[in-house]
Amino acid sequence: MLRVKIGREVTEQKDRSAEGAVADFVEIKTEIDALNEKLKVAKEVLIDKAVLILGDDETSTITFSVDDDSVQISFGYDIKVKDEDTLRKILADRFDDLVTTKTTFTPDKKLKEMALEDDGLHECMSVKAKTPALKVVK
Question: Where are the domains of the chain?
Fold first, then answer.
């Protein structure tokens, strides 16, 4: 029997396809989680080996192969400006050539609610439905 909980209210329905989908989802998600843990261990081993082999070499990509199986590991950096004023002083006239400036507008919760109700706001905002998120609840 399929139990449906909306808020605090629980009802039961007979729906074999949904019952099967719930069981399949939980089983597959559990298998994926176990495989992700196994994958994490393999990644750590390969990354450690890559770091050891590369040493001080500045090459950012290394490939390991066994028979027809290959894994490529790429290293890199995530570099962000954290002190704009100091960086401006250091770079002087080159700042605008070397730094991309972005302005981001993020609506707050109330504006998001208003955008769903007011067609006038659709003129100046992009409103898209998110992909539904699913998770296993224990």
Answer: 2-122
